[in-house]
Specification:
The complex is a heterodimer. Chain A has one domain (28-238): Ribosomal Protein S5, domain 2 (2-Layer Sandwich), CATH 3.30.230. In chain A, 28% of the residues lie in helices and 29% in strands. Chain A contains 4 helices and 10 strands. The longest helix of chain A is centred in the C-terminal third of the chain and has 31 residues, at 208-238. In chain B, helix 3 (165-174) runs parallel beside helix 5 (214-228). The chains are: A alpha+beta, B alpha+beta. The A-B interface holds A 39-40, 57-60, 69, 113, 117-120, 148-157, 191-194, 229-230, 233-234, 237-238, 240-242 and B 7, 12, 14-18, 30, 32, 39, 41-44, 57-61, 89-91, 127-129, 207-211.
Chain lengths: 242, 229
């Protein structure tokens, strides 16, 4: 993330390599309730990312040592499929997937009304079928829709979105080249209705002014994605399936 | 829970959505009040009844309450108690002291074994969701015949209707004994054709209860049964 000075990521006309404006997001589509065996599920395509989330529970938390007497625990398993990138990924947990599972669980715990289900566990499985930078954000968005689909009570629908810096310029929603050769990446989990931030990570360096601009982009994108999330849930249920 | 409204006039709300001012109204299930606004916490249909704003959820888990009549299934047997699958997050515990028989220590399995179905009542639920069941009471018993069907708990009140009217119509149409447990399990007993018709009606309700007028399903069923007769 230190940046590579000889890689051109912005075109001479001020647009990005894929033709997007600086504050333009990749196309996002969401579908709710795609897995019949899960209590709730969703699929998010964000650019070339494809994330599927499935929610099971609330159920009795096992092993018992993970139970909390006053609240539920959220058990998140984030996994990238071996075929999700151009290089094969070795199946199973690794350092990165453990980290993302942990931060995603913490973000979701701050949104779900966990105190309603003492000693319980809500299992969230996030599978990345195709990856092109920003998979943790796509995973969080998919998990939020799947949790809503499962009828889990929440304070808000959390949205995962990221901004970053390439060639000294703040841009919204980094693609693969920008993520690999850019100077900073700022993924956040935003609660669009309350404006709260449930999760924030930063890789690279941003000045305070750049950080402010990146967050402004993130909030703007979160509103857009939130509308797509609500629309996905409406399409599923107002269509007459339940 | 809804009393059988159709979906046409209802509004679907998602978690975090502001659903209106809270002044002069009460927050029901699925609603919290913040900054003089009611906020939805669950995905479902907004409804207002008796000055209370609540959400009729799309999906809901069974949360046991003391006094609930439930249809349970034996999941585990110990020397002096049974663990029941009550279709909730946690198993219910039925101690031999609350069974309808005199049970010797170590002989629990002779009365009920794994897979047996019972009609029981929730005796007690503590704050940690420990559930104690009882089978001491009128009508509580082991169910030795009939069939058990599942019904999403959010649709139970729709199937029952006001004063159990719809449930009675279903019983009459299928000529079956039908017990709807609060935990979303329905016990049906009667002729095989009656059980089949009742199961189909319950499936139809479970599939489209938010959007379909259940009376239409019942009318259709009554027409079919009369036609067969």
């Amino acid at each position: 993330m230190g940046g590579y000075g000889d890689v051109q990521l912005l075109r001479d006309d001020g647009l990005r390599l894929d033709g997007r404006k600086l504050d333009e997001m990749r196309p996002v589509t969401i579908e709710a309730g795609i897995l019949p065996a899960a209590d709730g599920s969703a699929m998010v395509t964000h650019g070339l990312n494809v994330a599927v989330a499935a929610v099971y529970g609330p159920m009795e938390a096992h092993p018992r040592k993970i139970q909390r007497q006053d609240r539920a625990v959220i058990d998140v398993r984030y996994n990238m499929a071996p075929f999700s990138t151009s290089d094969r990924i070795r199946p199973g947990f690794n350092r990165r997937s453990r980290e993302i599972s942990k931060v995603t669980a913490e973000a979701l715990e701050s949104v779900v009304l966990v105190e309603r289900y003492p000693r319980s566990k809500i299992r969230v499985e996030i599978e990345i079928l195709a990856a092109e930078a920003g998979t943790r954000c796509a995973g969080i968005t998919a998990a939020a829709v799947a949790l809503a689909d499962a009828g889990i009570p929440m304070r808000d629908l959390i949205v995962g979105v990221a901004s970053g810096k390439v060639e000294g310029t703040v841009v919204l929603d980094l693609d693969k080249a920008e993520d690999n050769y850019g100077q900073a990446d700022l993924p956040v989990g935003i609660l669009p209705n309350t404006g709260e931030i449930a999760f924030l990570q930063m890789d690279g360096d941003l000045s305070p002014a750049e950080f402010e601009l990146a967050m402004e982009y993130n909030f703007k994108a979160a509103k857009e994605i939130h509308e797509i999330m609500v629309d996905a849930l409406r399409r599923r249920y107002e269509g007459g399936e339940a | 829970m809804s009393q059988g409204q159709t979906g046409a006039e209802q509004r679907l709300v998602t978690p975090g959505m502001a659903v209106g001012p809270s002044a002069g109204k009460r927050a029901g299930s699925g609603i919290v009040a913040a900054d003089n606004q009611f906020i939805a916490t669950q995905l479902g249909w907004l409804q207002e009844r008796n000055n209370t704003v609540s959400i009729d959820p799309i999906h809901a888990a069974y949360m046991p309450r003391s006094g609930d009549l439930i249809v349970g299934m034996v999941a585990e047997v110990r020397n002096n108690l049974w663990f029941m699958d009550i279709n909730g997050s946690f198993q219910g515990l039925l101690p031999m002291s609350l069974a309808p028989w005199k049970v010797e220590f170590g002989a629990a399995r002779q009365h009920m074994d794994i897979g047996d179905v019972v009609l029981a009542r929730v005796q007690e639920v503590d704050e940690c969701h420990n559930v104690v069941l009882t089978m001491k009471g009128v009508g509580l018993r082991r169910l030795k015949q009939g069939a058990v069907e599942s019904l999403p708990v959010q649709h139970i009140d729709r199937v029952r209707g006001p004063n159990n009217e719809r449930l009675q119509r279903l019983r009459d149409a299928c000529d079956c004994r039908i017990m709807v447990g609060e935990n979303g399990r329905v016990w049906i007993d009667g002729s095989s054709e009656g059980i089949k018709q009742a199961r189909e009606a319950i499936h139809a309700v479970a599939k489209a209860a938010h959007h379909t007028d259940i009376d239409t399903i019942l009318n259709e069923l009554e027409k079919n049964m009369k036609g067969d007769a």
